[in-house]
Every structure is written in C-alpha cells, then in structure tokens.
Amino acid sequence: MNLKNRITQRKAVIGIVGLGYVGLPLVREFLVNNFRVLGFDNDAEKIAAINKGQSYIHHIPSEFIDQFARRGALEATGDFARLREADAILICVPTPLGKHHEPDLSYILSTTDAIAATLRAGQLIVLESTTYPGTTEEEILPILAKTGLTVGKDFYLGYSPEREDPGNSQFPTAKIPKVVSGVTESCLDVIKVLYDQIIEQTVPVSSTRVAESTKLLENIYRSVNIALVNELKVVFDRMGIDIWEVIEASKTKPFGFQPFYPGPGLGGHCIPIDPFYLTWKAKESEVHTQFIELAGEINAYMPSYVVQKTARALNDDNRSLKGSKILLLGVAYKPDVDDLRESPALKIMELLMTEGAKVDYNDPYIPELPATRRYQFKKRSVELTPSNLESYDVVIITTNHSCYDYNLIREKTHIIIDTHNALGLKGQREGKVWKA
Ligand SMILES: NC(=O)c1ccc[n+]([C@@H]2O[C@H](COP(=O)([O-])OP(=O)(O)OC[C@H]3O[C@@H](n4cnc5c(N)ncnc54)[C@H](O)[C@@H]3O)[C@@H](O)[C@H]2O)c1
Questions:
Q1: Is residue 164 within 6 Å of ligand 1 at its C-beta?
Q2: Is the C-beta atom of 158 inside 6 A of ligand 1?
Q3: Phi, psi dihedral angles at 158 (to 5 degrees)
Q4: Of 43, 44, 35, nearest to 8 (Cα)?
Q5: Which phi and psi angles does 328 have, rounded to 5°?
Q6: Least packed by Cβ within 10 Å: which of 45, 120, 316, 380?
Q7: Which of 127, 52, 43 is nearest to 78 (CA)?
Q8: How many angstroms from the chain centroid is the CA of residue 7?
C-alpha cells in the first residue's frame, strides 16, 4: 500500500520528534483523527510523563494523554532507532540562537542524523521548526540523500511551518490554515494529503524556501509592528499623550490599519528569536536586515524603560529603587500560559535587583521559577492576599493574566506600574497608577 493510502486509511504511524509546545499539540491532532503516534524526545522526564498518561503543558489535559496512552495509540520514547517504525516523521525540535545571535541548527541536524540512520523507502519527513530559508534543502536533504535513497521517489521531504498560538482557544491547531511545501511535486502531494487529515485548510506553496520564509515574514511583521508602538509609547509619553487611547481611536479606521499594542518587551520562543535567523542568512547575500535589527533594539529596551518608570514613580514619592519591595504580577511571557521563555519580566526582575530592590513575583501558572540558561532566580510565587499586597512599595503588572482581581490590587497597593493598560486608565498617570 502506498503512503497516501496508508495515511487516508489511518494505517500510517506518525512519528513526532520534539514533544514541546509545538510537538504535543500536533500529537493531539493526529490522535483525535485516529492515527497511532510515536513521540520522540531526549528529555527522559517528558517521555516518562507521556507514558504515565500525564501532560506537562497547561492547555493539554492529562486525561487526554492518559486516554490515548492507555489504549496504546500514543507512546513516547527516547529510542531513535524506532524512527524506522514511523511512516511520517515531523520534526518539532528547538531552533534557538547561539551566543553570537547566530542560528543554532544543532537540534535539527542531530535529529536528521538519527532519521538518516534508519531511513527506509516510503517514509515522509517534514520539518516544522522555524528556521531560515534554505534549511530543508541545504541542510536536511544532503544528509538524507547520503543514504542512497532518492527524494521524491523513495522518500518524501518538505517543510510546513507551525503557527501554534498556545492557549488561544479561538484558534486551536486544526483551525489555523497550514502552509505546506515539498522538495519535489510528489513530496508536496503526500505532505498535503497528510495535513489535510488534521487541519481544515492547507496552503500549498511552490518551494520549501517560500514556506520557510512565510513563517519568518509572519514573525518579523509582528516584531517590527510591536517595536513601532513601543517606540511611539515612549515618544507620546514625553508629549503627554496616551498611546493606548491613540490606538483605540486609530483602530476605528475600517481599512489599512491593524492595531498592535505596546508592552514590557517581547517574549516567547518565536518573535524575539526567529527574525535573527533571517538576519544571519541575509549576510550570505550581502544584504542587511535593518528593520529587524532596529525592531530588536527597541523591543529589547522596553524592560529598562519599565524600570526607569518605576524609579520615577518611587522618586515622586521620595523613595528609591534601592531597598524598595517590589512585586511583579505575572512572569509568563503572555497572559494565561505557563511559558517563561524570553519573558521580559525576568529581565525586569534582574534590572530591579541590580538596583538594589527586593523583588517578589506572583504567577498562578508558574509556582516556582525554574533555572534558565540566563537566569537562576530562586523564587516562588507569593500569594496575592490583601495584607501581602499592602506590604509592597510597588506592584508592576508585567503579564495581564485574566484571573487577576485588579480592583483588589488597585485598592491595596501603594504604587502600580501598568505595562499593559490592564487598569484601563485614560492618560499616563492617575494618582498612584503609572503606565509604562
Ligand atoms: N512555541 C510556539 O508557540 C511555536 C510556534 C511556532 C513555531 N515554533 C517553533 O517550533 C520549534 C519547537 O518549538 P517549541 O516551542 O515546541 O519548543 P519546546 O522547547 O517546547 O519543545 C522542543 C522539544 O524538543 C525536545 N528536543 C530537543 N532536542 C531534541 C532532540 N535532539 N531530539 C528529540 N527531541 C528533542 C525538547 O526536549 C522539547 O521537548 C521551534 O523551532 C520554534 O521556533 C514554536
């Protein structure tokens, strides 16, 4: 039976490499559509959790994992020799930046080596990790081709960028159109059939380079537009104008304007990182990506801006950052998720502590701060009781979690720094509330 028939008849085994924020939701889509899924990861804790029927991602319930793990439809393993068992292999491993802001493809390359070691005729390989244009054909294809098997004939290869928005219930994975591409026509044909089983709308494009670039355009678009409103926030603030009110009014224009909102800085695994993949690759063609670099600079400055605003608010009250007790509300990089990666709240915490402030945090999604590559804070989330709130000199709203009771917070705190307009203030300051 050929691969397309195996897919449509649910006989194909789906191998997903990297069971993180992207991989696990994909696992879920294949399971609900009656595929058997074999998950690969090199994190022994994640493998054990899945096989015990436990989830480690907030928006995927353990009951869901348990139900499919018990039935044998889902299994996780660190034994990469078992990649041979999968008919389709989707690569969802991290693509971070190296020390000098260069792409770190080591996760993709080691996964490709493992796939090549067991590659057999009839397998389909799709890269989902975000990366620079050319990765699939310049980096992955040569490794797989060394096996002697021919792409488009013996095995299939393509790229399909992930557009997961964790925690967004309006756009679950199946409802987000998915761009698909293949190294050859026949590759695209099989890849489209695969994703058509789990996604409502697939969008075929002519090459893997176009698909790789699509994802980068989407992320750069956000990074640049967020930087623009962050810059305007600072400019308007000096002029006594409230950016939030300006955006509300501007967005009544029914065409040609899409609102973006300022904040304490960029977070998450994508937007602060991916644009620099293109910056690096563009150097090969002797082109500079000025927009990307400028946006990165402005967005990276935002945590310092929040700290400056906090110092000003304390100063206004004859106090200083040094020795002040400060509470950060929310450390996740966006509301209602448990993801800390690149969160600007951590940078703000570091800057405040450097100035001699005593800093605590509250985040219902993150009870304890895990050590990251950059930060080793040993802190636990404090409770939001009225007396506890009263004990802080400043509360900074760093993440606008929907569970926060802002009436209580407003009533009990001395100074509030609001980086998300969570209190809906008109103007930049009202008594003890300052916008930053
Ligand atoms: N998180 C998002 O919202 C999002 C959205 C779109 C695209 N992406 C992209 O998807 C990719 C994965 O991101 P993520 O957020 O899922 O990352 P993640 O860190 O949540 O998950 C990656 C997983 O891969 C595992 N892993 C690392 N090296 C491995 C290896 N050699 N073999 C097997 N498993 C390995 C890790 O243990 C982890 O479980 C990245 O390229 C990212 O840019 C992420």
A1: yes
A2: no
A3: -165, -175
A4: 35
A5: -95, 125
A6: 45
A7: 43
A8: 29
Spell out the long-range contacts of 276-284 with Cβ–Cβ below 8 A and sequence spacing 24 or more. 276/97, 276/101, 276/103, 277/95, 277/97, 277/103, 277/130, 277/131, 277/132, 277/216, 278/132, 278/133, 278/216, 278/220, 279/101, 280/101, 280/102, 280/103, 280/132, 281/103, 281/132, 281/133, 281/134
Helix (H) or strand (E) holding 76: strand 74-77
Q: 99 Cβ partners below 8 Å, 6+ apart?
A: none
Could you write out the DSSP letters of every residue in 309-360? HHHHHHHHTT--STT-EEEEE--SSSTT----TT-HHHHHHHHHHHTT-EEE
What is the rounded distance in angstroms from the CA atom of residue 391 to the CA atom of residue 264? Answer: 24
| Residue 223 token pair | 């990074």
Q: Which amino acid, residue 56?
A: Y
Per-residue pLDDT tens listing for the chain (436 residues): 799 999 999 999 999 999 999 999 999 999 999 999 999 999 999 999 999 999 998 889 999 999 999 999 999 999 999 999 999 999 999 999 998 889 999 999 999 999 999 999 999 999 999 999 999 999 999 999 999 999 999 999 999 999 988 778 889 889 999 999 999 999 999 999 999 999 999 999 999 999 999 999 999 999 999 999 999 999 999 999 999 999 999 999 999 999 999 999 999 888 889 999 999 999 999 999 999 999 999 999 999 999 999 999 999 999 999 999 999 999 999 999 889 999 999 999 999 999 999 999 999 999 999 988 789 998 999 999 999 999 999 999 999 999 999 999 999 999 999 999 999 998 889 999 999 9
| Amino acid letter, 214 | T
For the chain, the distance separating the N- and C-terminal CA atoms, rounded to the nearest angstrom, is 61
Dihedrals phi, psi of 149, to nearest 5 degrees: -80, 150
Overall size of the chain counted in residues: 436
pTM: 0.92
Candidate from 40, 80, 115, 162 with most ligand 1 atoms within 8 A of CB, to mutate: 162
Task: Tell me the two tokens of residue 124.
Answer: 């389909």
Cα separation, 85 vs 13, in Å, equals 7
Residue 403 annotated as catalytic: no
For ligand 1, is residue 93 a contact (CB within 6 Å)? yes
Residue 270 CB less than 6 A away from ligand 1: yes
Which ranges in 185-207 belong to alpha helices (H)? 185-196
Which DSSP helix (H) or strand (E) runs through 282?
Answer: helix 275-284
Nearest CA to ligand 1 atom 27: 93
